[in-house]
Amino acid sequence: MREAVILEAVRTPYGRRGGAYREVRPDALLAFALNGLMARAGLDASKVEDVITGAVTQTGEQGANVGRLAVLMAGFPAEVPALSLNRMCGSGQQAVHFASQGVDAGDLGYAIGCGVESMTRVPMFSDIGGGFERLNPELLARVDLIHQGESAERIADAWDLTREMLDAFAAESHRRAEGSRHLHAELLPAPGMDAGGQAITLQHDEGVRGAVDPARMATLKTPFRDAGVVTAGNASQISDGAAAVLVGDRDIAVADGLRPRARFVARVVVGDDPTMQLTGVIPATRKALARAGMTLGDIDWIEINEAFASVALAWTHELGADAARVNPWGGAIAHGHPLGASGAGLMAKMLSGLEATGGTFGLQTMCIGHGMATATIIERL
In what residue span(s) does the Thiolase N-terminal domain sit (predicted)? Predict the structure, then answer.
């Protein structure tokens, strides 16, 4: 029976919007990650049978099937195909799911699930030429689609989350991210540029703050409501980055001298309320745990994407999760959220975390715009 396993997983450090990668095209950034992945794995790229790429804003430099363009830029053989998909914030995670499902089905021996997003060079919503006003009026008359920031505010209302709770969670995300800087084995230092225009190699996530001033955080505006609780400080950072995960059939990989590092226990995607839109992580987690025959107490390491602090806190409260196991190295509030890359990047980070701590089971879940969510459970081997 075929079994998909993770063989290698890498991500670039994430850059701030307008930061170190401001002059790096997304196809080049992904090509760098793909080459780094294959170099670490020690596998010839000719053995890869598909490259599945998450990218949310597929226009301009991220258009024209950016996955295929990156494969060609990386110097992979022309025979290696690639596609690009958009499941919004869950795109990179979905890419890993599809890669592993192709291996499990026996269609692929090796595949890469990856993702990229340059939110500096290809701004959000530029693929539709603007914001919600560009969506179909008939759709908007039928479904109350609102900005994710307002959804995050409604989640805070529903779970009685205060501004102080959200800000404290955000500060803790930075504290954990700063404290784990030296532990991220998945990081692939990448070339960039400093503020003065000099070439540098970015070693760590650019957005992580060594210390957060609570008083200054408390002064940040609430852009979605006059008396709201959601701010730029307790929401994910707009970022640039790329990540890639090499998946292969266990028997084939072992025969080729590669070491399986994790196997897939459960993979799910769910639809949920499109207005609240960010609460899908709750049913997605429950569905993944049920499919695996596990409880949350069985999970050693949890990655829930910190799109907004209210999402992560509501999920933690609803599921009764041990906060110490949730984003132990911080999350997107600190290290950033390059939309299409984040799913593969969190998978790489979670695997590093499990290996660093000797944990066995990891759970990753991500909220997705328009009311969806992905979830994955892996077992470290």
Answer: 5-248
